[in-house]
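fyi for ur records
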Amino acid sequence: MFNKILVTGGTGLVGTALNSIVDSYSPTEFIFAGSKDCDLTRFDETVDYVRACNPDAMIQLAALHGSISYGSRYPATLLRDNVMMDLNLLEAARINGVKKIALTLSTGMYPEDAPIPLKEEYIHEGYPHDSSYGYAFAKRLIDPSIRAYRAQYGLSAIGLITNGIFGENADFRHQSSVMLPALIRRFYENKDNDTKITIWGDGSPVREYTYAKDIARAFMWCLDNYDSEQILNIGSTEEHSVAEVACMIAEIMGVDPDRKEFDTTKPVAISRKSSDNSKFMNLSNFKYTPFREGLENSIKYFMESYGDPTKIKLD
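which gave:
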């Protein structure tokens, strides 16, 4: 157990999920840092901020990401900003004598043609999907970065691979939201009219989904119990197609699921990205929240908080 943990990206989806369960980790002190507290793309500012916080451990959750459209339009921004944030924090941890740092990777970094299920050793064996290559290569770089900082400096750095994270504090903004929160918003804002609810693609891509509080708990377990250069898939392996998720959202909101329509002229993401989390499960015997339960919690929060900018991000 650590005395003080600095959580960067602390105001995001997983950061706020962790913040909601910190009592489970008492007496550890947590600092939840958002972009207003420190610009992690600025090296000197990052080093100074970590020094001022003086943590003995760090969880790096901060990332720039977004929808397929966002990834296609801003690949350089996604590559540049994510690489700078991760490398700046690794160096800041080293300079300031932080004992341990956990960094976040994503299943979106795996090669497009990798065998299913996705195993950690496949990470560098091919090119990622074109729709997210900037973000994907930034996340891949964490793997050699961890190995290098462990080898040269003895820094206890670990890399944890997440998949389709969802939860109460998701990003619902049109420009940057990913599929699931975008669908929740679209169904809610159109539930009282008779218009069709359009979904990009054909609805066939299958994705795994992990409740944000489960990711938070997995990070804490790894921070306390895992110390290796081997990156780990830590997400749930429960998976559903886009069409299935849309039908569940409609059902929970009381919307006729037949109102959905698929725009097949829009890009279709990679068909399936199922991951193999057996390395993590063999170590932890972790228990995940069922997808339907997490989805109901997320939709309930969204509907109760809609219109309150202090609770959900819409613009």
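The CA atoms of residues 41 and 85 lie 5 Å apart. thats all i got for now
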